[in-house]
Amino acid sequence: MVMEIMFLGTSSMVPTKERSQSAVFLRYGAEGLLFDCGEGTQRQFKIAGVSPVSTTKILISHWHGDHVLGLPGLIQTLSASEYGKTLEIYGPKGTKERMEHMFKTFIFDKKIDLKIVEVKEGTFIDTKLYTVEALPLEHGIPTLGYRFMEKDKRKINMKKAEQFGLKPGPIIGKLQDGESITHKGKKIHPDDISTIEKGAIVTYITDTKLCENCFSLAHGADILICESTYGSKLEGKGEEYNHMTASQAAEIARKSGVGKLYLTHFSARYKSVTELEDEAKEIFENTVSAEDFMKIKL
Ligand SMILES: [Zn+2]
Ligand SMILES: [Zn+2]
Question: pLDDT tens-digit profile of 154-167?
Answer without folding.
Answer: 989 999 999 998 98
